[in-house]
Amino acid sequence: MTDDAVPDLRASDADRERVAEILRDALAEGRLDMTEFEERLDATYKARTYGELAPLTRDLPAAGAPAAPAVSLSKEPVGDGGWRERIVGGEGSSQWAVAVMSGFQRKGRWTVPRRMDCVAFWGGGELDLREAVFADREVVINCVAIMGGVNIVVPPGVEVVVRGIGIMGGFDHEETGVAGEPGAPRVIVTGFAFWGGIGIERKLPRADRLRLKEERRELQRERRELQRERREDRDRRRHGEYPHPRRRHGE
């Protein structure tokens, strides 16, 4: 998948952080000055699609590869990204989740079975797959929502295929078509929603979000320190604390 092939696909937090990392490397290597870096970093965190992210690194080498061309936003990193350890086999924690005028939730460390059936009738449920392990490389989650809703949260890198329909309701297809990482699970969501909704969203795990938040804070501290040094340097020059260059004879 090339950058130009998917310009309208929605970018994830992981995509934005991948670009931000390349910009930080470019600043450290002197490829960007601070003004350029700040402008591009601001645009990175405001970007909503691949098409908005791609131009920000088009003239820069990819992270960890100085001789490489501009970064690719395809979700194809080297290796399996640790996914192999998360496909554990077995039967899964539970194969059913039912909410009748109530709710259900699966989150944290749990095993997604090869097939899971979810029913929400006048109720709601959430399946959070960000820290889950998987019984197989491909799993099916079948959802039926009648005057209720089911929300499925997947981590970046997982491929999602949606084959459900909504009748006077909604079935989220936004994550369909986003390529998965090599070795990552494939989640197929089927079923129907009648006067209800099935939502699918992609989020970073909590540990990753906290790490990225701390990195942003550190970057802001570095930026403030650089701005302070610039102000001090400007003040010293203004008050004549730096010697002026010696004039040449005759000037």
Notable traits:
251 residues; alpha/beta; six-stranded parallel β-sheet; 4 helices; disordered N terminus
Provide a brief overview of the structure.
With 251 residues, the protein is of the alpha/beta class. Helix content is 26%, strand content 25%.
Uncertain runs: 1-5, 64-79
Using the CA coordinates, give the radius of gyration: 24 Å
Integer average pLDDT: 81
How much β-strand is present in the residues?
Answer: 25-35%
Strand count: 13
Q: Structural class given helices, strands, pairing?
A: alpha/beta
Distance between the termini: 62 Å
SSE ordering: HHHEEEEEEEEEEEEEH
SS element count, helices:
4
What is the molecular shape? elongated
Largest sheet: 6 strands, parallel
What proportion of the residues is helical, as a percent range? 25-40%
Verbal overview:
By secondary structure, the protein is α/β, with parallel strands linked by helices. Among the domains are: 13-54, no CATH class; 95-202, no CATH class. The chain contains four helices and 13 strands. The strands form three sheets. Strands 1, 4, 7, 9, 10 and 12 form a six-stranded parallel β-sheet that branches. Helix 1 (13-28) runs antiparallel to helix 2 (34-46). It starts with 12 loop residues before the first helix and ends in a 13-residue tail after the last helix. Mean pLDDT is 81; it is low at 1-5 and 64-79.
Write the layout of secondary structure elements.
Layout: H1 13-28, H2 34-46, H3 50-53, E1 96-100, E2 103-106, E3 111-112, E4 115-121, E5 124-128, E6 133-134, E7 138-146, E8 149-154, E9 159-162, E10 165-167, E11 170-171, E12 186-194, E13 197-202, H4 206-238
Parallel strand pairs: 1-4, 2-5, 3-6, 4-7, 5-8, 7-12, 8-13, 9-12, 10-12, 11-13
Helix pairs in contact: 1-2
